[in-house]
Amino acid sequence: MSSISDQIERYIRELIKRYQGQVEIKRNQLASVFNCAPSQINYVLETRFPLEKGYVVEIQRGGGGYIRIIRVEIDSEKEYLQELVSSLEGPISQNEAEGIIHRLYENDQ
């Protein structure tokens, strides 16, 4: 049986595919769908949808707040790497490095 994080990730990925690379969701509504705390949604967004895996996550807080997740298309590997390097603020973890490699491999397919 898959974890709640896996289920949330799969659901968001399906939405992104359905809506051509971009989706806007409400954190509380999504937490309600999965019967979990909103912090679980935050965890999934931070760990499963980072820039090095090809996603930009925009969060608008407040009453009408939303979360927008955008799948970044790679026009060129050079452009992607330049964007990625400019966003780094120091050493990266093994998971981040693996995410970058996976993203480049995924783009090659």
Plain-language structure description:
The chain is built from five helices and three strands, in the order αβααββαα. The protein has 109 residues and is α+β, with helices and mostly antiparallel strands. It folds into two domains: 4-71, 2-Layer Sandwich (Phenylalanyl-tRNA Synthetase, Chain B, domain 1); 77-108, no CATH class. Helix 1 packs across helix 3 and helix 2 (27-34) packs across helix 3 (38-48). The chain is globular, with a radius of gyration of 15 Å. The two termini are 29 Å apart. The mean pLDDT is 84.
In the CATH hierarchy, what is the architecture of the largest domain at level 2? 2-Layer Sandwich
Helix content: 55-70%
Sum up the overall morphology in one term: globular
Mean pLDDT score: 84
Radius of gyration: 15 Å
- Total number of strands: 3
What is the H/E order?
Answer: HEHHEEHH
Distance between the termini: 29 Å
Question: Which structural class best describes the helix and strand composition?
Answer: alpha+beta
